Queue: 4 jobs
Job 1
Amino acid sequence: MWKKSILVLASISLIALLTLPVYAQAGTEKLARRLIQSYENVKSFLQSIMGNLDDETASKVEDAIARADPLIEEANTLLTSGDYESAVEKAREALSVIRDVLREIKDVDVIREGGRLRIAIGRVSRAVARVERVIQALENRGVDTTNFTSQLEEVRSLLEEAKSLLKSGDLEEAHEKIEEAVNDLRSLYSDVRGAAKEHLNLTREKALNRVKRIERASERCVVRLDMVYKKLVRENRTEDAEKVLKLKNSIERTLLSLKRHVENGQRFLALEDVRQLFRYLRICRRIGT
């Protein structure tokens, strides 16, 4: 189980890196080094478990590494010469070779679970950062936040445990730690929210206005994406059309989730939806008609 889980995490990380646009990094040099290091990490792991693989799978892994190694050597040479963009492309080629072999030795259900837990940890981590900002604002107002800070550190500790368990392949334990972190954070958020209303004048009206603005922007994005999707279909650009449709459906689902959480008074979950919609809108703005 643990071997499959590690392969899952490696595959997920590779896919994320392979789809990352160059301009998303501070510079192409940083991205090139990150891609090369990622390859070395995955290669090292694959070599460490080679003895536990059947002959056919081990042969596929060896062949993939033999084809990918020269590409990484080229990437390192290009990186040294200062041709960072070419280094990125060569490193991505090498990672694509490794990704293909990873796909052959992983379990689909485990992939989904590992990916879901990884995303969950990211979301909780971002929520922790937001709560921390409110706590800092309270502290700046002279409020005693010692108890809040202590509870937040406990949540962080749970997340670190979840990360370690995920890396070791213990998905069940990782899931339990994440759930524990979420529950503790919800309790903490309730207390922090009460203090914020008292000391920072955070009103329900302001929160609702923000929700309305993001809803309107998201609805406009859905309309735009629908137009782009139809255009791509007419041009027989099936793969691009599917990506646009997937984004459109994700926005629509999150909008429904946001409305439901607002109606039920689940402000913490509603804020998570708003955060997700902001990410979708950033992607939407890069999609031309």
Job 2
Amino acid sequence: MNVKKIIILVLAIILILGVIGLLIYLSEANKVPLVDLVKVGDYIQYNAGEWNDAEINKLTSQKLYAGVDSVTFETPYMFGGFKSGDSRNVGIVYPGASTEAKTGWRVLDIDKSSGVVTIVSNGITETFYYPGEENGGYIAEKVLNVIESIPYDVQDVNQRDWNMYVNGRVATDATCMMKSNVDRITNNIVNFNDVVEVFDIVNIKSNYWLGTAYGKSLLYSINSEGIVSSGNNKAYGIRVIVHLKSNIKISPNNSGNGSETLPWKI
């Protein structure tokens, strides 16, 4: 190959790379921080992945997994309702739950100062049996890996690793839904439309636990009518919340609109 052809080839490569760089720049320039676009209640196209054998085996070895069937009275402080290969984005139906399995993810909280958007599973992703006993509320908090009430020194308890729900590309950490999450969104209500939207997020027509002790032997929950309640000796659902990364930007033109049929794409 002579020098002239080499020069033409090099210039062509430079031109192609320049065009690609310009397209990337224009694409990024049109993107807007996610925190500035979404509102509480919006639907988010988040992928929490699928359960695999290693994760199931880990939970089993920790005596936290009761099996694919709904947890029962013989499995205190254990989780169930899912198996290897199941999607963590798909809601489940269990005894006492609605016949409708809500799926997907919704915006639960928006922190403008940090840029963090918090999302919550739209439905029940798994079940948890809480037996109720002296100081059982605090034991449940320890198992659920949250600290919502007065700390209690619980020994020899395996804590749930919620980061199995974390998609490292767009999220930082995860936990189960707590009473403080419900309080935060209800305290931020400013108009009637917000009331309707917030109630729709909380009320999924299924009983589920909030990872917060109510006294020594009870655990906060949301009943099938969407009302804050409490109880024990029940196998209720669990909802998972995920904190997204603060630097997420999306294009408002081709990234959905936050509706159930067109969720925001991240």
Job 3
Amino acid sequence: MKNSILLFALIFAFSLDAFAQSDASLRLVIEKDRSSRDSQNKLFTLTAGEHLSRADIYMANRHFPEAREHWQKVLENYPTDTNAMPKALFGMGRSLMWERQYEKSVSWFDKLTKDYAATKDGREGLAFKGACLVRLGKNSEAAKTYELYATMFPTGEKIESAYLNIIDALREAGKYPEANLWVDKTQTRFSGMPVATNALHARLRMEINRQNWNEAVKTADDLLFGKNFSNSMVTADEVKYLKGFALEKLGRKVEAVAAYSSINDNLASYYGGLASEKLRQLNSGSQIQKTSIVSAKYTKDYPVVYRAELLRSAKSLKIDPRFVLAIMKQESSFRANAKSPSAARGLLQLVFDTAIKYNKKAGYPSLQPDDLYQPGVNIAIGSVYISELKNEFSGLYEAIAASYNGGEDNAARWLNRSKPKDAGIFTSEVGFAETKNYVYKVMSNYRVYRELYTEDLIRK
């Protein structure tokens, strides 16, 4: 009976989330708001629950100002409601964070944690405050904020990421001894867990960034000796590549070749492809074992769709249309009517708040959310967006993919701490597991498309 009740609760919660994210729910709440205003267009005061419900729908569809209008009504009219207040404060901070208004976001998270630290929203707010400070370049303050989270909430939902964020924030603040100390603390606190592997990986990235090549090789060997990569943010192939890179910098060519050669080159290994290129550059004559071949059989899974639209929009902006197809395959599996839980729509899964930054340049001055389901519109706006990212990241496709999934400011930060500049070094610095896997998949897709088709999308 208890299991049945739990299952029903989960299904009900999922149904609510799905409704909040749906286009129908957005249209409904917009209509409700039209009829909930006075003659001066000011929103009526509704119940706290109704304001929160409407705000959730707007937030799920990335209509942030509209969501904040409802949270503000809660804050003004229900100051003693201990359930509604933290949700409204968190919503204000999180929505501003999505819009990259980090200073304003921090002030709302401060209000939240001051009065409601014991709530889940309060804990989340403290963690997100640290994330905002990182994006503001206030890395020492961010490290202190994450350390406060670790002290206050030792079993909190974000305790593992708090430890890892302390390491990276201290590193970016130039406090390397302290960062290394937290690597040791993390390994002790989470011994045998994936987060301990991630902490050692953070040290490897830091030593490469500092060009401490001998320390980088040693740390890579420590990681490979442990061989505990399951559920972590790093793979053995990545560590082998980084080790080979450090050995190459040390002038130990034979050992570098051995490290690169130990990575199997197959479509499942992003670093295998990079290692193959390194071996060609080193003129070693070594051959990486190929466990799969890009051949005609892949054309079914890697089709060319909407060729005319792609050539018209992408090529005019000097974007490789094969890269656009690589993103399209990953984002929507070529489904024009796809919509994600984060309110991304269409072939290239564009969110409306991003689309309206580029719609005029793409030739669509008047844009509604549902227009993004039209292939031509989606490809045109998406191509302008990708073109802007290409210019921002100097044509590094890995950074474009990371930005597309994880945000431009995050990708810029990861690129900034990628020293030396190398595609594999950049990808190792990607700080979100989802985004890192996304980069792997998009670059694998792009590799196949380049093997199968010309830049004019003609089968080779």
Job 4
Amino acid sequence: MALMPTRKTRNTALALIPQVSRGTFVDPAANLMPISNLTDNIESVTVQNSEYTGSIDQNGDEVVGKQVTISFDVNLRGPGGADVPSAGAYLPGILLVNAKMTEVITATAIPAAPEALSAGSTTGFTGGAGMTGTLDLYKGMLVRLLGVSTSLAGVSAIRTNSASKVVELCETFGSTLTGNYQIPKQLAYVNSISSTDPLPLSLKVWIGGKRYDLVDCQVTSAIVAVQTSTSKQGSIPVLRFSLAAIIYNTADEDTPAIPSLGTTPKFKNGKQFVAKKALGGSGFELNFGLQTDAAPNPNQTTGDEGDELVGKQITLTPNLLSYRKADFDQMALADAQSQHPYFALWGETPGQIVSVIVPDGRFKHAGDDMGGTHVTQAPQMLIDVKTKGVVIAFPYY
């Protein structure tokens, strides 16, 4: 008797693309994206049949539909290449946009050539003629401070800028800033607070030679999970997604090969500034806090219109070393409920440098965790609804 081929878990691939409209599947096969830790979950939705049967026995529940969810991780690396990619070309960005982020491409450095800053301090400067005097035009953008360094040490994040070009940064430098500055070309994903719904996605998922075509896919959970890599242990920063979907079709098809994208930058040899102070810690988690629901509609085959975003509340939780009151008084910051920035930056090569920027966040209180050899704290940052409230950016220079 001939043996049937088995399906291997690692023989898995995924492709995705935005749809033009809800309910219309678009073939995403050209957009293969490396992922890991895929889980697909297909569950029956049942309703109890309460009809009497003339005995104590009861009929089985009736199946009224099925819920399809998939979850996976995407390594958090930049788009690569020598220049900023075109719109929609960075595939993980398609998922970020579906999670209610806006893709922002800065294709030309500002100014075109580095120019001298003036009125420098340890936390900011005044820009020159190459900047435009519009309030918060550059909020959440990365800026290079060439008087500090031409390497990663000279890359910072703009917390705010005034109409008179006064720039406040998300970090504190050891001495007054001098020399030239330039806002480099960059690809960014910025929290969107508009009322526009993101387009649903079409996905193809190959698992061990079987293909699932999924339509009207909606991100239901999005998390940026970043752990610090040390001399004793390491971890790969990831984007962690879950999506609700509708099965459009299934077929047997060999899983396509996905080219390797190389190593992923580890969270070390970079920057982590909390309330403008360089603090140590084991990493951070940015949670989009998405809420979804499906509107009932008897005109649809499924009886509803598919999952849509109905709510979002973003939080960022850094796992920090706990410091003495004189160095970092987290309790006082939480008591005051004032706004403070968070800024993380890592990577070595432009195109693979990653940054996460929260210009304003309020701290919740956090106790001391003594479960390890060092005392730690995990003070969650509450992020209010503000323009450019969260930015994930990749610089090119």
